[in-house]
Amino acid sequence: MIDMSIIDDPTLTELALYWDAKRGGRSAPSRDDLDPVEIPHLLYCMGLIDVLENGTCFRYRLVGTKVASAFGKDPTHSRLGDTFSRHDPYAYYIRDILRQTADEVMPRYTATEYVREDGTRVRAKRLTMPLVDDYGRSNILLVGTVFSEKTKAPVLPPHCVTFRGLMDVPLEAVVAKAV
User: Fold this and answer.
1) Coil vs helix vs strand at 78
2) What is residue 57's three-state secondary structure?
3) Model's pTM, two decimal places?
4) Are the C-beta atoms of residues 155 and 77 closer than 8 Å to each other?
5) What pLDDT, in 10s, does the model give residues 5-26?
6) What share of the chain in percent tops pLDDT 70?
7) Backbone angles phi, psi at 126, to 5 degrees
8) Is 38 in contact with 20 (CB distance < 8 Å)?
9) What confidence tens digit (pLDDT) does each residue in 23-50 have?
10) In three state form, how does the secondary structure of 86-124 look?
């Protein structure tokens, strides 16, 4: 059971409860355990990300409409490296979250704040949860992301770091281990 007190968003809490119920006594559910018909009201904020090349590469399998809108395009079927600019520090940050979640087969809750090119400050809260294959290896990641926009910030040059991590919590301490 996940301790929901750490997740401060009702949409992400509902998604975590769904994931937790689907895993049963295992470390994580499989993709086959999930049924989008059971959670149609959450699909807009969800994404499925394939774990490739032993967790060194990631491809967006499916991206919800709200998440695609935040990207400014639909990244479905593209690799993480193709979605961000080559030296974007935010891409490295996201890749590390995905890699840690896949390697540890453990959900992570993160919050970041970044500034879009138009100067809008955006806060993103993200719950990244592993899905496993028949051998218990993480092969897909289920990611729920909610966004809140804030006031305009000064427009920064493209080479500046325009995000900051607000929270990064591995949920290993609050998830009951499978027996």
Assistant:
1) coil
2) strand
3) 0.84
4) no
5) 788 899 999 999 999 999 988 9
6) 78
7) -135, 130
8) no
9) 988 999 999 999 999 999 999 999 999 9
10) CCCHHHHHHHHHHHHHHHHCCCEEEEEEEECCCCEEEEE
